[in-house]
Amino acid sequence: MTIRVALVDDQELVRVGLAMVVDATDDIQIVLQAADGAEAVARLAETTVDVVLMDVQMPRLDGVEATRLVTARENAPKVIVLTTFDLDEYAFAGLRAGASGFLLKDASADEVLHAIRAVHAGDSVLAPSTTRRMLDHLPTARAGHEASPLLQRLTARERDVLLEIAHGHSNAETAQRLFLSEATVKTHVAHLLAKLEVRDRVQAVIFAYENGLVRPG
């Protein structure tokens, strides 16, 4: 099955470089290119795409707002935001807007291809160590804030697994800490993502912090 990809960046040189990387594969195809967020939002409404590589700093409509609009749609594609600096404010804003991960613009060809395949498979493009650093930038629930009723859908074990994810632990680490098999952890992760109505681990972490289930530190 071919993965259909959109490239969104105001720098033509970046788009050309990414297209060359993707065109060298047999399982990924560029089906759309756009020079800014506004163009991307309009064209993605008419084109079926699996994964979007989205620059965050663009004219007319930036990548953060474009990501928010695109991921809010039914059957939305997965979005990977492209940023110049590791874990900068734009990357975090993109993740909170619904992106499944981020890549540096100087990422290697292998890293780009791995990221596309990973998010298409339902994973996120964030290492556990990156997740831990991300937590310091997330707002926690305000005093008196009522937690989402979606949390009540989780079983006790699914809540345990969510706590582990929210603290940046991998599936293997979670399995060891909870005395479960890694396959069982993966099953719990799939169930809790569905129950919380989030697409991936990144959004699950953000959900947990914004609803006061866990706090930094």
From TrEMBL:
Keywords recorded for this protein, A-Z: DNA-binding, Phosphoprotein, Transcription, Transcription regulation
Domain of life: Bacteria
InterPro entries: CheY-like_superfamily, NreC/VraR/RcsB-like_REC, Sig_transdc_resp-reg_C-effctor, Sig_transdc_resp-reg_receiver, Tscrpt_reg_LuxR_C, WalR-like
Any GO MF annotation of the entry: DNA binding
Entry-annotated residues carrying 4-aspartylphosphate: D55
Residue intervals of the HTH luxR-type domain: 147-212
Protein name: Two component transcriptional regulator, LuxR family
Organism: Kribbella flavida (strain DSM 17836 / JCM 10339 / NBRC 14399)
Biological classification of the source: Bacteria, Bacillati, Actinomycetota, Actinomycetes, Propionibacteriales
